[in-house]
Design a protein that fits this description.
CATH topology: TIM Barrel
Oligomer: single chain
CATH superfamily: Glycosidases
Largest sheet: 8 strands, parallel, barrel
Bound molecules: ligand G3I
Distance between the termini: 55 Å
Number of helices: 14
Radius of gyration: 20 Å
């Protein structure tokens, strides 16, 4: 009798992040992933089979985001010439595996096609360029994206507008137009403003993100969510209370969703030790618990789970080990810390979009703008 294929066909017993996140009331725990061959350290092709098996397990990751493939430089490399090859790799994977897909990113100053930056535009010309891009991309993926990061990183470190080509030519009008066109191109996708460094309650950049989102909403344009990238530092990270306070400020603007969209927690070199890993575990756990406790927070995406495929060491060479799986595929202590947070909340909240009417949901408060009951109604 050949037992091996049968054993191999069984689901991995270790896959738990998404399973426990959903039991605690979140929509998903997910991981971004890149196109094979593009992954940060290509010599690691030998690790792909193990990596892919972990990624494929929906009990581990119920959602994904293409790390690079949907960015402007790949998807519209020449004016009006669209190439969906890279974006489709991860979008197709999500479909095959039944994962939610967050789409990333329509308007961003970085990884922009050089022709956008190298041309001197009139305002009307640049508006037409942005419109063509958003309609070209968001219409192509229409119905497949749970959410779109419509505008990414429009703020400078001090919370003022980043002086991108979009801002220099169009001022803040481009923000309103981008959300308006995304809403027209894919009416069912949740539309997010996404940025890094907007996780702390009293920072200038958090204030800037609030101003930006309020400005768009005040113009009568739909913004559904704020995406907190959360590229965090193990030795100086926001507490759970910080995350909750910040999210409550965004929710007060009237957005219906919040998400941690690119979570990783970098550790300073050299090496790792128990202290650094404990700080990192605290940071990952703080994000998990804050997301469970704030009703609008729908889920958490880590910006790749396997350390060799993380962007951190390439950009910050004195930092590393920001993910949840070490190079040898053993897990960081943060993994169990996250699971333990979710286990505390097991069965305390309804799962997915099915609120229990009996919960302590106050009239009006548990409903969104359309009067639809929100996902969760537990109050703290
Ligand atoms: O295209 C080449 C490919 O041909 C080559 O084989 C490969 C191997 O080195 O490199 C590829 O280019 C890389 C590109 O990602 C695509 O994989 C670049 O070197 C690399 O610098 C680039 O980095 C990406 C970075 O955005 C660029 O800013 C990271 O993978 C990606 O994780 C990162 O993601 C951003 C989010 O989109 C927005 N928020 C910040 C976050 C981190 O920077």
């Amino acid at each position: 009798m050949r037992l091996l294929p049968l054993v191999a066909a069984l689901p991995l017993a270790s896959g738990q992040l998404n399973k426990w996140a959903q039991k605690a009331g979140l929509k998903y725990y997910g991981s971004a992933t890149d196109t094979p061959g593009f992954r940060e350290r290509q010599p690691y092709a030998a690790a792909y089979a193990k990596y892919d098996a972990i990624f494929a397990n929906n009990d581990e990751f119920g959602q994904t985001t293409p790390t690079n493939g949907q960015k402007w430089m790949f998807i519209e490399p020449e004016p009006g010439v669209f190439n969906f090859t890279e974006g489709d790799v991860v979008a197709d994977l999500a479909k095959q595996q039944g994962k939610l897909l967050r789409c990333h990113a329509l308007v961003w100053h970085s990884q922009l096609a050089p022709w956008v930056e190298n041309t001197t535009w009139t305002p009307e010309e640049l508006k037409a360029v942005i419109k063509r891009h958003i309609f070209g991309v968001a219409s192509y993926y229409k119905g497949r994206c749970y959410a779109w990061d419509v505008v990414n990183e429009a703020l400078d470190e001090d919370g003022t507008y980043r002086k991108s080509v979009f801002y220099k030519v169009l001022g803040e009008e481009y923000l309103k137009l981008a959300f308006q066109w995304a809403a027209e191109a894919d009416p069912t996708a949740k539309l997010y403003y996404n940025d890094y460094g907007i996780e702390r309650p009293a920072s200038n950049k958090t204030a800037g993100a609030k101003r930006l989102v309020k400005m768009i909403l005040d113009a009568g344009v739909r913004v559904d969510g704020v995406g907190m990238q959360a590229h965090l530092h193990a030795d100086n990270h926001p507490t759970m209370a910080d995350h909750m306070n910040t999210m409550q400020q965004y929710a007060a603007l009237g957005v219906s969703e919040l998400a941690f969209t690119e979570l990783d927690v970098r550790i300073k070199t050299p090496g790792v030790n128990d202290t650094k890993l404990a700080w990192q575990a605290d940071s990952y756990a703080a994000v998990a618990e804050a997301c469970v406790r704030v009703p609008q927070c729908v889920g958490i995406t880590i910006w790749d789970f396997y350390d060799p495929f993380s962007w951190i060491p390439a950009v910050f060479p004195d930092n590393h080990a920001a993910g949840l799986w070490f190079e040898d595929f053993t897990k960081h202590p943060a993994y169990d810390a996250i699971i333990n947070v979710f286990k505390k909340f097991d069965n305390r909240k309804e799962i997915g979009d099915k609120p229990k009417p009996a919960d302590d949901c106050k009239e009006g408060k548990g409903k969104d703008a359309k009067g639809k009951a929100r996902r969760r109604s537990w109050r703290y």
